[in-house]
Request: fold
Amino acid sequence: MTIAVGERIPDVELRTMGHSGPQPVRSTEVLGHGRVVLIGVPGAFTPTCTDFHLPGFVRWAGELRARGVDLIACVAVNDAWVMDAWGTYRRVGDAVLMLADGNGEFTRALGLEEDRSASGLGVRSRRYAAVLDDGIVTYLGVESEPPVLKVSSAEAVLAAL
Reply:
């Protein structure tokens, strides 16, 4: 079952890159306080994610913060090294926190997993954007078919705030 507006995000271990390598973080600790914009992508370095989805949130980070967003985070079913390299490649800097869901546990707990084995990608995340207020989903835009980028774009999130 897919997470819905009004529900609390699950408490799952994710990873982010620290000074000495991948560091575990709990989803509720990093995403459960203040107003957070969370974007979920099928994969780092994939075309729509790399060329449009993530860059939109980097571009509009200042405006999102001006509207009360404390944190923008991006999660994918990739490892922390890949997420870190992708963030460096896209020059996210401090605009977006890159989170690795290497085993897909967070994605599965959200009910947003998608089997892309036919394309050789395995189980990945559906493309989405969520606004979380103290860990409660207040907006959820899940794309219905890839590689569409409408309800999960930075512009759609800005309109929802």
Observations:
- The chain is about 30% helix and 30% strand.
- The helical segments are 27-31, 47-59, 61-66, 80-89, 105-110, 154-160.
